[in-house]
Amino acid sequence: MMKIKKSKYPIEVFSTTYKKDLINIINKVSDKEVESFIDTLLKSIEQKSIVYFIGNGGSASTASHFVNDLSIGVRSLENPISAISLCDNQAVITAIANDYGYEYIFSKQLDVLLKENDVVVAISASGNSLNLLKAIEVAKEKQAITVGITAFDGGKLKQMTDFSIHIPTEKGDYGHAEDVHMMLDHLVSSYLNSTLI
Length: 197
Description:
five-stranded parallel beta sheet; globular
């Protein structure tokens, strides 16, 4: 029979604390960083450039969700956002991982697809995933704009990208980090939906 470890907190207390902590973290997110990201997306529309999203694990799901909300959810037929998640083609990802190594799953795709002035958005709580860092290196070589959406201390990704939206969470606090990453998706998409025609 499975033994369940008893939590030191009653569920109600844990729930209340989690929500309070989340609100505190949200309030520390820089509105200036959010504004820079939205400005980058608006510029990508003007230049008819493509915005590529990348991430691992839960951040891969966030990348796909961002693309859904920006390219389909922002219902602007005259000013569409061209957004693509490089996390979604399993045949391509597994071929690259098998032939070159997992650390190249995004950079090899960008080698083929990326053009000058395109945008690469890398989502990572730790900011230290090698496949994201290699992708940013390629993006810089091709003179694309790079954005990091990070947490914890931001890792190397925060230092490498042109700018970042940093979520100040404790190291290892993936729950709050990914919660706020998704909130950013909906904040940005809602803003664009209210301004684009």
